[in-house]
Amino acid sequence: MPELPEVETIRRGIKPHINNQKFQKIIIRNASLRWPVTADISQCLPGQKLLSVERRAKYLLLKTNSHCLVIHLGMSGSLKITDATVAAEKHDHVDICFDNGVIVRYNDPRRFGSILLTDQNPLQHKLLACLGIEPFDKLFTGKYLYDLSRNKKQCIKSFIMNAQVVAGVGNIYANEALFKSAIHPLRSAGRISCSRYDRLATQIQKTLELAIEAGGSTIRDFSNSDGKPGYFSQQLCVYGLAGKPCRVCNHPIISKRINQRNSFYCATCQR
DNA sequence: AATCGCGCCTGACGGC
DNA sequence: TGCCGTCAGGCGCGAT
Asked: Which of A11, A58, A105, A157 is catalytic?
């Protein structure tokens, strides 16, 4: 489920409930995720104060003085704010309990997510160290994409979904941003002009921003940390709209698999 | 070196 | 009603 806007929505949703609280205990009900949840999490964190709730790409970073809990929601993960009176349900893997009684409950049916503890700077962690620039960084510009894409034969959609190029642009928002910048998803990244990249960089930022404002999009099973669905899905231009008329030219939206990912575009507007 | 595509899982959905 | 095939928003890693 969650792409960057959803993760940011979740970050903003949980932070006020837990920031500056002490970890009380960690209950690992089902350690089976992408990588097994290790017992050191429940040993290290209790007693430590949570100093910040940050995000890097689609990772949530819960920082203390000495450690960082790194949470990824994979395809189907969610976090819920709850308390001990509420019984755990199917696929509730981990409870992160705080001194004020608040529990952040991690649920993940497909188990593609992960919960890791590190005592280094999380940005140096193997999984985060190779990540590209944040889309909201001021250095993320058309020029940046243009320079990086010279001589790349890879298609533009794969290029912008590559986390080493820009972090956190998943399938939905790649489709939407390409539509809004009128670029065909199969065009070679190396054969796009700087001015078109300017437009693309802007549209990636705008699309993500809009989705964050809308509280994340809902396709199937997304619900934010309070359990309420987001509303961005109403604003999608192409994603999931195969056969529907393009909102600009009325030609039907095409769907096609590109690198194993379902892709949606208007073959008339996008070149 | 760059790029592709497999596989990790469960669950929802559509067709028969 | 049930069984089966297909698909899903991610991402690391091995193969090419």
From this structure: A58
* Mean pLDDT per 10-residue segment, chain A (271 residues): 87 94 97 95 97 96 97 93 94 97 95 95 94 95 96 94 94 95 96 97 95 66 48 82 94 92 95 95
Q: List the CATH code of the domain at A4-129.
A: 3.20.190.10
- Determine if the pTM surpasses 0.90: yes
Q: Using an 8 Å Cβ cutoff, are A246 and A268 in contact?
A: yes
Q: How far is the CA of A182 from the C1' of C15 (A)?
A: 34
A126 catalytic per annotation: no
* Neighbouring residues of A218: CB distance < 8 A, sequence distance ≥ 6: A229, A230, A231, A232, A233
Between residue 74 and residue 113 of chain A, the positions with Cβ below 7 Å from nucleic chain C are: 74-75, 110, 112
Locate CATH 3.20.190.10 in chain A. 4-129
